[in-house]
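User: Structure please.
Assistant: Input sequence and predicted structure:
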Amino acid sequence: MSDILCWMSRCTSLVGPLSLTSLIGHPRIASSQGIIGPYHPITHHVLVLALTCVATVGWEFAEFLCDRFFGTHAQLGLADTLGDMLLGICGGTALLVAMPLVSKGPIKR
């Protein structure tokens, strides 16, 4: 794989979970709809990180199935797959750590 495609793969492995974490991790979205009950920071962050990890693993399964059935060659080996998963989990974790730091305070009801 060329260097530019390898770089793009790493960027999408990091940015994809960032966007997913920001979508499912926003406490106002989840709590205002009553989806997960009242907002509690610790359980909310654990749930969001778990869903981000599930999405990261699901993405790698999808790449594997595309390689197997359509011959796309998206996975270059074990190191590529594990690197993508590590970047996805690190990206989601970084956003969860940064969200409280940049938020404007606790949610008011």
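The chain has a mean pLDDT of 77.
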